[in-house]
Amino acid sequence: MCSNSRQLILIVFVAFYVILAACSGGGSGGSDSDSNNDSSGVRLSTNVLTFTGPNTNSTPPSQIITATVTGVTSGTLYIKIVSTGSAVASITNIFVNGTTSGQGTINPASASALGPGLHTSTITVYVCTTDPDCTSGQLAGSPQIVNVTYTITGVVASPSSINFTVGDAPDASDLTRQFTVTGYPLQDWTAAGNKPWLFVSTMSGNTTNATQVKVSLSEDQLDGMPSGTYTGEVKVTPTSGLAVTIPVTLTKERDPHMEPGFPVQTYRTSGTYKAGPESLYITVGNLDSDPESEILVTATATGPLWAFNHDGSLLDGWPEDYGLAAGFPSLGNFFADAGQLEVAVGYFASSFASCNDDRFVFSGNGQPLPGWPLTSCNAGHILPPQIADVNGDGLDEIFFGRHTIDAYQADGQLLDGWPSPSNHEGYSLAFGDVDGDSVDEVIAASHSQITAFEFNGSTVAGFPFPTFPSNDNSRLISAPIVTADMDGDGRYDIIEVRKEQDSSSRTFVRLFGADGSLKWENETLPDESIYYTTAPALADLDGDGLPEIIVQVNGALYVWHGNGTLMEGWPVRLGDRHYIGNSSPVVGDVDGDQLPDIVIVTYGGEPTAKVWVFNRLGQLHSAFPKKLRLSSSMAPAIADIDLDGRNEILIGSDLWKGYSGMYDTVYAFDLGGPTHGPILWGQVGGGPRHQYRYPPK
Fold this sequence. Notes:
The protein is mainly beta. A hairpin with an 8-residue loop joins strand 30 (428-432) and strand 31.
């Protein structure tokens, strides 16, 4: 205990109270009235403090302020320190030097926490002898004010990190993020990303005002990127001060049902090609000596034709290097090599000259077979060749239809009796037994009639028969015909689809008997039409042994029984902006319940399309629709490409971004489940031969 002492109490109102005491010796003691005499006072060593941070990573050192008190000889002395503002983090190490002075350490706030700018604080020092709050009895010169300025140079970005998560068909909002750049003092800055998939749209600015910087993912680079997490950064570099790095994380999530190795890519170029499901489609079959299937698809717009193994790897010898335009392939067995198919192709016109080498047959290794190519004078093809063994020799023949029907043997020689007569307004071909002799005939449809030919090119009795007036363009045939025995009488019926040309844009489905009689005609609702064409599918959905007719139109999917009545649960209406594009229904068990499912694709007028799977009752599968960047898409396919007992769904894309390059083209999905049931109509036209008959051969 100090005799004849006086107490010095410092109260700091920063984040807490600090009370320090000291005592001095000597003196006779005094009364409290002496503590506020006229000669008492307080002064500080400085009333201005300046801190300078050269960048946000460098916090300047602390500074000390000394306070001196005069004229107080007895009683209790109270000192209260209050700091306001952001520049000062704390005042520490407050202690008394003797009986008349004390000091405190002023600690600036963290430069990284404050960020660039001019920051300020005010420190107020109260000295009194009456109470800790110094509400009265202050000494002369109290309160003392210390003005603190704190300059931090540089720029700062907010938020400090960016994250993207994208799937196979990201929305525009999934592909962009923003951050704000601020800084001090007035200076210029630049911004740049460090990865090809990372694009910075605002590449420079200054600190006059806060600037929004847009960061985007490059869709071109996203194509072909496998699932995984990718990291990059955007760096903002100011004229003075340190650069700021914003870490960027991209999580690429492929669909969980996507087969490993997919999607596969093809090289695309600008140009013109034929649209519609009978021209843009996926073809599947075995082209080589292994048992698994291969996948063929044309690159748009100018080819070539590509072939891939079941695991997504490129098949040896492909893409072929012969065609000069988009190619439309079919598969057939042209040699006695059971289980291994060859590729017949009709090419779109690379130019609109009258004659081109546009008919090829390739072996499985992408090389033309002897006798090919052949020259046609049709200004190119708009449909694939169609393949069937019409003469019963065990080998397939090749049919090209347009203004005439040309039929070829595997060696490129015309089949006896062919070509057909000319001037038939263009042909849609199918195969089927229309005369009940258990041998398929070649069935050809034009705008105004349907004709059937025997294998030797002669016309079947009772044909042709008229289907529509040749001079009436109000309804145009707008789909390949399909054939099947719809009523079990042993003779194939013929189904055609027409679209109305006026503003109501309706679609008409008609069934003709083999004798030319119109058995029924049905129509869709107004605006449920088709832009290019549609390719009907045939499959026995209800298990009665007779096929149903499945037709996709804009915004809806229809199923009719063979007698013209709608199947229960159908049509399924998808709503506006679900256009058919190049899609066509395919049918098979894709989930292992042993019952048929129907797969289609729709697009909404932009790159994003949707894949749909419905069961036979019209109920949507729980994993669908799936969004993909397909544009108008291609006709899908169903096939067990890897022979694992499960049927894959194969989806094609014709997406065009305005420049040549590699594009995701074929997607493969496996929905899992137990061993799957049969495929009833697995590709456009039924199968890889594109015969448009049920059941497919």
